[in-house]
Each structure stands twice: as structure tokens, then as C-alpha cells.
Amino acid sequence: MNLLENAKEGFRSIQGNMLRTVLTALIVSIGIMSLVGILTAIEGIKYSVSNTFANLGANSFDIEQKEENNRQGGRQSKTYPPITEFQAKQYQNLMQDKARVSLSTNVSWNAVVKAGNIKTNPNMTIIGGDENYMVNENYDLERGRPFSNIELEGGAPVAVIGQEIAEKLFPKQNPIGKSLLAMGRRFKVVGQIKSEGSGMGGGGSNRLIIIPLEAATQIPTQTPLTFQIKSAILGSTSLAYAIEEATGIMRKVRQDKLGQEDSFEISRSDSAAQTLDKITGYLRTGGFLIGFITLLGASIGLMNIMMVSVTERTREIGVRKALGATIQQIRRQFLIEAIVICLLGGVAGIILGVLMGNGISMLIGQGEFFVPWLWMMVGMAICVSVGLVSGYYPAYKASKLDPIESLRYE
């Protein structure tokens, strides 16, 4: 009896016990559906969130003044000089062919903004930014326009404001073209930033006033301004390579001596994406374990069904052995039958799992239909493995039956 005949015999046996086969295959399909479905949902959500991170600047990094070290053991803390406008622009010129660089400086974290007799709470942030600042920070305008080149170069008294400021100072009005007073200077509103929520409890862009960088440098402050630099990688250059190159350029600009630690800090904007990778790794492991446990129950059920099948077909096995079937042929027949049942359940489980996983990911995210080819292949491999493991002992038992005793079995 060759392999093809074994497969045909397996299908005939399955057709003869259709209800039992369907129930067994259903157990397998539920296990595969849970495995593939959970993993598909995780991958789909990860794909959607990763695209969101990419759109929000996950391919960028920030350079800021290094924070002072805390005193430990009576040692004096080290003070790092602020990043000056000259150093920031030097870096921008050296990196302009490798990244889209934006410069900004924080004028005030706790400014009071006025318009006529109305004023805000003292928790508004005033930022001076260049032509790339809003693009790199992914700020979209709800109304108005960004700064023109003439306004940026001349340091014109214009401002782009957040939604909370607009609603507070200009209730039920269009703020574009209106004037406000901040840091003792009068600014004309030319744009309003689209709301982005609470922003980690600090108001996000809703409490933000952006003015031209040149205008920010003309406002007197109690302490010297320090400049922040954001570099967005646009080409195929890897983020890690770009950071290494930026570190070398910034050390040269800051004149950090050989062997001296960096006098600035570089923070990657993809830290959230890296955290997401770790979380999805844990979820993927958990999902795999849940699916594996379900499949373990399915394999036990399949083994039980195959044992019953061997008992019911004892006389048939005796006839086959009497006609010359070998131990290997009998064993192969029952193994193929177990694998066929698992594959039928596996195919149904994979289809249902892909649909279920994509349904979950689309409810949570905005991703496209995701086909997890890897997990589909893993699911099929697991089906074959479950069939082999569950069918081996019944097949072994069937192959060892005595033909004479089998023919006498009623």
C-alpha cells in the first residue's frame, strides 16, 4: 500500500465517521484560530502603531543641553554650558544634506498671555522655532498659515497659537489676524495649531505659542537661551548611523576634547516604538502559549478519537494484515489519517484566525488587512506536528495487533 492509497483510505475513513471527524477537526481549528488570530491581531496593531510613530517622527532624534549631575559623596556637580544659537546653526549647516534639521528655543514655560482684558493662566509655553520646527514636530494647522521666509528672517512679531489659548483669549472668534501680548511684546496671530489632546497632562500643543526663532532671541530673559535641535532622517540612512554622525559633528561644534564626555544629550524619538516592540514580544509569547495550550487539548482529543478508531477497526486491520499489509503500512495509514484531520481543522482555523485577528486590529487601529504568512506556515507546521504526536501511539498500537486475534474481534 503506497502513500497515495494510504491517503485515500484515510479520507474514506473520515467520510465514514463524518460527525466524529468534524468535531475533532473543530477542536484543532479552535486551537489554530486562537493561535493565528491572537498573533495576527498583535502584528496588525503593531504595524498600525508603527506607522503612526513613523508619521509622528519616530525616525528622528533630539539634541539638548546636558542636564547637571547631582552631587554625590560631597563631589561638586558639573555644569554643562547651554547650546548657543551659533553652535546650533553650525550643526544645522553641517547636517543639512543628511537630515531635516530644526532649531528651537524655549523662551518661557510659564508665560501669561493677554488679549484686551482677558488673560490666560501662567502656564503657557512660548517657543521660538525656525522654518522646519512645525514640520519636524508634526504640528498641523487648523487655521491660518505658517511663518513666511520674510517673517522668519526678520524676526517679525507674529505667532502661531494652540487651541486652548485661542479659546481663552478669543472665545467664539477666529483668532487669525488678532493681536496678543506675551513677554511684554505684541504679536499678531497668523495660525492656530490643530488640537492634539492633553499631551501627557501638560497641555501639549494646546498651550503653545510659536514665534519666529529670530524674534525669540530678541526677547530679554533672566537666563541665557539654550537651543534644542531636532534632526529628522528622510532617506534610507539608519537612525543609529545618523546619531553616530550627529554626535561627531556636535562634539566638533561644541569643542569637546578627546576622551571628554559629551556636553550634550541625544534622545531618540523612537523610544516609544522600541517599548512597543518589547510589549508586543511579551504579547506574542502569551498568545503563543494560549494557542499552544488549546492545541494541547485538541491533540489529547484527537488521540482519544484515534484510539477509538483503532478499536472499531480491529477486524479491518486483521484483514489487511492477512492480505499482506506490513507493520509500517498499517502505522502509516493511521498517521496519515490523523494528519489529514489536523490539516482540515488547521486550514479552517487559519482562515478564521486571520479574519478574527484583522477584525480586532482594525477595531483598535487603522491598519490595512494583514496576512501573517509566517504564522500561517507555523500554524500548518503545528497541525502536522499535532497529527504526528497524537496519531503515533494509536498507529503503533494498530500495527502491533495480532492478525489472527484481530480477525476474531467482534
UniProtKB/TrEMBL annotation:
> What are the GO cellular component annotations?
plasma membrane
Q: Which UniProt keywords apply?
A: Cell membrane, Membrane, Transmembrane, Transmembrane helix
- Supply the name of the protein: FtsX-like permease family protein
UniProt entry tagged with the keyword Transmembrane helix: yes
Q: Where is the signal peptide?
A: none
Q: Which family does it belong to?
A: Belongs to the ABC-4 integral membrane protein family.
Q: Which Pfam families match?
A: FtsX (PF02687), MacB_PCD (PF12704)
GO MF annotations in UniProt? transmembrane transporter activity
Source domain of life: Bacteria
Statement: the UniProt record of this protein carries the keyword Transmembrane helix? yes
Instruction: Please report the record's description of how this protein sits within the membrane.
Output: Multi-pass membrane protein
> Could you tell me which residue ranges the MacB-like periplasmic core domain spans?
21-218
According to its UniProt record, where is this protein located? Cell membrane
**Ranges annotated as spanning the membrane:** 21-42, 288-311, 334-357, 369-393
Looking at the record, the residues that make up the ABC3 transporter permease C-terminal domain are: 289-403
